Amino acid sequence: MDVIRRWTGRGAAWVVAAWVVMVLLAGAVQVVRLALALTSALSGLLEHWSQRLEVLRAASRLASARRARAADRWRAAFEAAPLGMAKVSLDGRLEAVNPAFCALLGEPERALLGRRFSALVYPDDLEVLEPTGTQGAKGQAKGEVRLVCAGGRLCWCELASSVLRDARGRAENVLVNVVDITRHKRSQAALRDLATRDPLSGLANRRWFELQLAGHTRACAEEGPRGALLVMDLDNFKVVNDTLGHQAGDRLVIEVALTLRRHLRDRDLVARLGGDEFAIVLSDGDARAAEAVARKLVLAVRDEVTTDQTDGGVTMSVGVAAFELLPTLRAREALRQADAAMYTVKRSGRNGYAVVGAAGPHHARPRRPVADLSARPVPMAVAGMV
Q: What is the C-alpha R_g of the chain?
């Protein structure tokens, strides 16, 4: 029995040992399987990230190549553009200019790079330029300025600027497109002159004069009367045209226009209403000042304007309507009153002036002989003129 017990005990121990070994072996197998699974998963993950990294590298190389090609295309377009283009730094200095921009200014590229763009702009137009970064919501701005070209020549240009930004949206520099609009500006000025100027005399035409007269009378009605209206007509102008021809008449009109302009202020409006009829709007002054101007102009035309006529005399009749003496401040009424005063002078002997609402008319004496022009002027008489 003891032997049986011993062998039974030993068998049980072997069974337990075998079971423990089997458990350990099963655990090891599981560990190995787990390790193999982890290794496989890690290997797959590494392979995936390796492929992903290669894709990213390929995409980066492709993007770099595209950027390089785009930069090459942009540079080619920049250089070949028929309009002036300039790349300006954020502090306002020229970083790059194309040949068209250099040709527009008449300056070589080396003389422009590094200069401030504002140094090329005519000082009176600097306020048109906006500071970098304030070009509006879309980073764009437009304006018309005069650029100072080589030799001091001024060129009207339209500027269109756009802010260039990097991949993160930060401003890098400003691209400025420059279009020469000098011819357009000259055409506009020519059209304005055609609309407002008399082509023969260079004075304001009738349409512009009537607009300005209406504006002045409105201002007088609101702020108080000031200034005066003068209407004048050359005496015997038809004789000049009939005897010397229309070219002589045109030369006479031009000479009278120059004489009037020479004896008036820049702020006074001088117009040719048609033929040999002129008109002036004095911007300020009272009736006495307007009478003094009329007297001066009558004498100036008499003494300074000459023709090829045998009698050598050119005279003018002037009607003066001081706005402070008019019953109503209306342009049409003022013109009618001044015109009536002028015809009063015509009927009473010409070569003089008359003031609406004052004594008159007053007449000047005929032109003195040439030998006496250097003599000292005779003082003005109370009721007449020299």
A: 47
User: Where do the CATH 3.30.450.20 domains begin and end in the chain?
Assistant: 80-181
Q: Are 117 and 99 in contact (CB under 8 A)?
A: no
- Tell me the C-alpha distance between 117 and 119, whole Å: 5
The segment(s) of the chain belonging to CATH 3.30.70.270 are 195-372
Sequence-distant (≥ 6) Cβ neighbours of residue 239 within 8 angstroms: 309
Taking the C-alpha atoms of residue 363 and residue 373, their distance in angstroms, rounded to an integer, is: 19
Over the chain (386 residues), the average pLDDT of each successive run of 10 is 57 63 67 72 76 76 66 74 90 91 92 92 85 50 91 92 85 90 89 86 93 93 93 90 85 93 94 94 93 94 75 83 89 93 92 88 74 42 46
Distance set, CA 165 to CA 129, 138, 161, 175 (Å) = 20, 12, 13, 11
Q: How many CB atoms lie within 10 A of CB 199?
A: 9
Residue with tokens 């050598």: 312
Q: What's the distance, CA 303 to chain centroid?
A: 44
Q: How far is residue 194 CA from its own chain's centroid? A: 20
Q: To the nearest 10°, report the CA torsion of 242, 246, 251, 256.
A: 60
- How many whole angstroms from its chain centre is CA 117? 17
CA–CA gap between residue 111 and residue 108 (Å, rounded) = 5
The pLDDT of residue 375: 43
> Can you tell me which residue has the tokens 């009176």?
124
> Which residues are marked as active site?
276
CATH number of 195-372: 3.30.70.270
* Fold designation for 80-181: Beta-Lactamase (3.30.450)
